[in-house]
Structures are given as structure tokens and as C-alpha cells.
Amino acid sequence: MMRRTMRRLRSIALLACALAAPCPRTARAQAEVEPACRTDYAITARVDEAARRLIGEEVVLFRNETRDDVPDLWFHLYWNAFANDRSTHLVEARGELRDLGVRDEWGWQRVTSIRVGDRELLPKLRWRQPDDGRPEDRTVFSVELPEPVKAGASLEVRVQWEALIPRVRRRTGHKDDFLFVAHWFPKLGVYEQGNGWNAHQFHAHTEFYSDYGAYDVELDLPARYEGRIGASGVQAGPARGGDGRVRVRFLAPSTADQRAHDATGRTPLVHDFVWTADPDFVVHHAVFHADDWAARYADEVARVGLALGRGRGELAMRDVAVTVLVQPERAEQAQRHFDAACTALFFYGLWYGGYPYEHLTVVDPPFGGGAAGGMEYPTVATAGTRLGTFPGMMVPESVTVHEVGHQFWYGLVGNNEFEAAWLDEGFNTYSQNEALYLRYGMRHLTTDFLGRPFDGTPVGAGPGGDALGDALSLRRIPLFGRFELEPLPRSGPVDWWHDQPLLSFAKGFEDPRDTDRRGYLSDPDTDPVDLAGWLHADRTSYRVNSYRRTATMLRTLAGLVGGDRFLQGMRTFSERWRYAHPYPEDFFAAFEEGARVDVGWFFDSAFRSTDTVDWSVEASQRPARPPSGWFLDAEGVFQKQESPAAPENGSGAEERAEHGHEVDLLVRRKGDFLLPLKLELAWADGRRESLVWSREDQVRSTWWRPLEGRGPSAHELVSAVLDPDGMYALDRDLSDNRWYKEPDRVSAWRWAERVVTRWSHLLHGFGGIGG
């Protein structure tokens, strides 16, 4: 009862922090980093392909590193989320996985024995629903132990289970001969000192959390998979055949890695194990040579070394063997997958500390099995691509960099993805786009015709796009009930004829870093970032906050404290919490210590509130006139002054030169996110001036007149620009952050000409079809 109460109090506290006042940060200093428990697994599993069944046995060695005595064990059975439409996962997902309804594609897991020594504990199995109390959910269970596991002691548990492999719809399962098997064994939750077992149900918008350890796994598969099996860690010895089967063993980490120490002085461990098999895999082997990449990006190495105060030798990384398992129709993309993997290994390793394992596997799922793509696991990343791509599209480069990047955020710094997914997804999204820009530059914008990308993009939208537009353009006309007509359905050749892309499209490019801001703006204030995954309003809020909004806030934080201090703070956090379980308070404390800054106010606004901001600047100016009226002189007598009449002919330039210019400048702030805001002014004489609207002044007012009380200016104002260095990425509308005396009218005419050209082609196309 006490442990349940603690967990519920933690959930209540999470929600309260998110919806009410900022939570106090109870940071743990480096000496107080709580030791995580260790869990090792020895697993044997056999796949019955005809029945899509998996039979397994595991020996679990749990080492209690806390000061508590542990009276029971809590396990995850993730596949039971796919057992029926009453599981918490499918109820939250409204019966759909990846927008497809689940029909006869179920999966489940059933424990058949769980023993400690000669004691069978299966009769004491108890299903748990710690988050929503839904009795039908069977993704978490506990067993009471004969005797508690004392502080500092170990316990060996033997578990037998069987499972039905689901159709791959969410991260794991089968598609024809393709197998991607993740979260497939009964896995212990995380025992947290003073808090008990942290083992959440498998929600639609949550991922995973488990302890570090080592895995020894032997798989028994049909013989046709031989040589086409990939898994976490490395293969130990050659595969063994016989009876139409193949048996292969994997160790994660490898024996050599478990005997070594990484740059932090710790022994590498992992916190999960996955495997994949497909007789159609094309296997591509290559090696990431760290020194070659360091030579290619010597300037970035020097920048990081200077910021961290470390020599090149201290930043050195190991070489890594990389295996790419790619589909045969996309075999020519294997090298691109490899290059993207190296991009993540190099830049993340340089910024946050080197990859400590000797091997990495990158998996390209087949057509129809894409739901297994775009995921991260220790030493394994699943990518996502398509036919006809070219490198400038950053497909598959973007997703590969992201998923390999998770080897650092989530893989090496093991945050609780149920409760604080942003500590890996958001950190990784920020890092991914920084790395993509350094390696590949600007992303090409493309348009699809017949499923193939065209290197170009329309400069204006065509007809359609909503119910009325689709009807008027004859794209789609709704009828009674669920019926509709499509007089002009979309078709590659017809769309090409309408659009005339070679004549009316333009080359389009975007900075990959800008996608973070665009994603953030899609839902900037529904929920705070620091909120448990299942407590978000919907999937959009979860994804925006966990990924794009966090990345946007980190980019703003880097602008606020400066690039060097930002890197120092992130490096301190990543090294301190390697192979451990940090929570948000630990990130806040480690960052402030490493960067030597006090930005608690920023963390509260950025991650624990829904505060946003929209700045704008307005300016007007006119020739100043000399004083007119009655004024007191030195003797206290009123004297009359009259302005000279304006010249009948001429521009009045002499008057403006003599009396200067009256400039009225107004800066406004909408929203409650307060940041010191820089304003840069440019004057007609070439002079530039920088002013700052402080946070303290913004507390007192939502507007600022920076030139108030100055009197006339000798020269005209040419421009006024807010945040001229682009330090902050969270402004909701950048279009009103700049004022110019002379607006650019040429660009508008150029884009208007292109839009008119495209529409003329569209109308000709419609007319031709209609005639």
C-alpha cells in the first residue's frame, strides 16, 4: 500500500507541477547520484514460424543497489497491449495502431512459470494497473517473493513464457517473413530507492524504462534466416545449424566491452535487447573511423575542445563496426544509411561523450513493415526510407541520424520515458538537426508525382485543400452518407500536366533546424513539456512537447547562455548520468553547474509552464519642427517662439537636416515568457545601436518605448530588429520582429509572378480536360 501511495503521489505531483505553480527543484548533486539497480538476463527463445509463436525461458539476476529491502518483483509484458481492444494502449489509441484498425493481428504474452530456487511463484502472480486501474490491462504484473531482497543483495529468478507474435503495427512484430522483435520478454521494471517499483502500463503515448545490465541471448529460428539475423550487441561465435533450424547467440554488450571502461571510467552496460530477422536482408558491413571524421570536421573539434577545455586526445572516440540490414530494392541506399549513422556517432560523441560499444546495427524495414521503423534500442536503430530519394531530401538520413542519436539520449542516459520522454526525444531532436545541418546543409523541398519525389516545390497552393475547395475544384464532392464523387482524382501524370513543375515550380530549401520551431508552433501551449506521457491532452500535444517544443527551448537556451556554456552544461549532464536514471531536476542541476549559470527561471517557464511569447516592433518617424509657442526664459518671463513657414517650393530637406527627426519606436510583448530581448537599431549615418529590454522591465510592462525622452534624432532610422542574432526560437510570429524604412517590394512581385504562372498552367489543364 505504501509503494502504491508513493507512486500515486508522484503522478499527482507530476500533474500538479505541470498545471499549477513551478515545482521546486530538488536536485541531486554529483555525490548524491543514486546508484541504479542492475538487472542481467540470460534468455533462450525459439520461434515457431507456422504458428507465429515464441517460446522462451530467461534467468534474471536482479541486484538491489538501493538501501531498501525489496519484497516483490514487478514485470512488464508489453505485448499484452496488443492482446485485445480493451487494453489501456488500444483504448487510448481508439483501437488503432499507426492509424490502422487492429483486426486479426493480435499478440500476447503468457508467463507459464516463475521460480526462485525451487519455489514456484506463479500462484502469487498479481496483475497491476498503477496508472488507470483498468482491470482488462495485462501489461504489468507482480509476484511476492518468499523473502525480501536485502539492500546490496542479489536474486536469481527463472521465468518461462510463451507469446503470440503480433503483426507489426507498433514497433514490434512480423510482416510476412520479416521479424522485428522488441519488448518481447518479461522485463523487470525499475526499483527506485524510497519510491518502490516504477513500472507503468504500456500507454499509447509512452515508451520505456528499465535498468542497465548485460544480456546473453540465444535464438532458435528456421534455417532460412541464417546470416540474416541482427540483434543488440554482437554475435558470439558462428551460428549452429541442424534439423532445418539455425541457432545463434548474442551478447550485449560484447565480452570485450564488458571488460573495458569508457571515457567516464564506467563499464558499458545496456538496458534492453531486441533482434530482427529477414531472409531478404542485404547485409552491408562498414566501419566508422573516428579519426577520419575528426580530420574532416577539425574546426568543430577545435570549437568543442575550446569550450570544454579539453585537448583533442580527450575528445577522441573509438572506431565502431556498423552493420546495415537493408531491403534488396533499396540496397543502393546502404551507404547512405551508414553515412547517416556515422554522422550521429561522430557529432553526438564529440558533443556528449563517445559511443562506448564496438558494434551498431541499422535496420531498414520492408514495405508494409514500416511501423517497426523509426525506433531506438541499445546498439540497434531502425530507419525509414522510400524509393527514389536523393541525399538532399535527407531521407533516410534524417530518421537514421535521429534513431542512432538515441544511443546517447535514452541509450546512455537512461531517463524515464514514461514520465519524462522529453529528456531524450527533445534532446535528440535538437541534436539531430544540429548534426544534419553540419553534415548535409540545407534540405531540399520536394513534391511527389506517382510516388516519386520531384526536386522542387510549388510557390503557391493549388485549388482544393478543404471540403469547399475540394468540391469547387472537382477533387472530391461529398454525397449522401459516406459516398463521394471524385471527378478529378489525383493522378501523377495528370497532376504533372496541371502543375507544369519544370516551368512553375521553384527549388526550395529549408534549414533542418527550422523544423523544430515549425513543429512547436503547431501546438505551443496545450500542455507543459514536463508531463507524463499519458497525461497529455492528445497525441499531438505529446509529440510536440516531447520533440519539437523541447528542441526549440534548448535552442533558445543555447542563445540565452551562449554556445560554449550550453555545451558545457549538456556535457556535464550527459557524463554525470551515464548508465543512470536522471529526472528533470537532475538535468536542471547538472546543466546549471556545468554551464555556471543560474537559469532556474528559464527552466520553469520553458519546461513546466505553457508560457509563450510574441514580440513585435513598430516605428514611425517624421521631420522634427522647431519649438513653437510661449516658453519661460532664464528670468522667468514667457517668450514667444514661432516656427518658420515651410518653403513654398522644394522638399524641405534643409528643414529636416536642421531640426532632425522625431522617431517613435514601440516594442510589444504578448505572452508570459520573459527573456532579455535585444533590439538593434540602424541609423542613416551608418551607426548601429544595441538596446536590451530586461526581464525585470518586462515584469512591469508589456510594452517598451526605447527612445522615449531622447528628443529628435539627427538622422533617420533605417531599421529596427528584435533578436538580431536569432538567439530565441520560440517567438510565435517572426513577421513583426523587424521594421525597415524601405520595404522590399521586388521579392513580392517575383513570387506573385510565379504564383500567377502556376495558376495559368492549372487553368489551362482544367480547361483542356473539360474541353
Descriptive account of the structure:
With 771 residues, the protein is of the alpha+beta class. Helix content is 28%, strand content 27%. Strand 6 and strand 7 form a beta hairpin. The radius of gyration is 31 Å and the shape is globular.
Q: What is the gist of this entry?
A:
With 771 residues, the chain is of the alpha+beta class. Helix content is 28%, strand content 27%.
The tally of helices reads 19
Amount of beta strand: 25-35%
Query: How does the overall form come out from the CA principal axes?
Result: globular
SS elements, strand count: 43
State the helical fraction.
Answer: 25-40%
Evaluate the radius of gyration.
31 Å
Q: Major sheet: size, sense and barrel closure?
A: 9 strands, mixed
Q: Please tell me the overall pLDDT.
A: 90
Low-confidence stretches are 1-31, 650-656
Q: How far is it from the N-terminal to the C-terminal residue, by CA?
A: 77 Å
Structural class: alpha+beta
Short descriptors:
five-stranded mixed β-sheet, disordered N terminus, 28% helix, 771 residues, globular
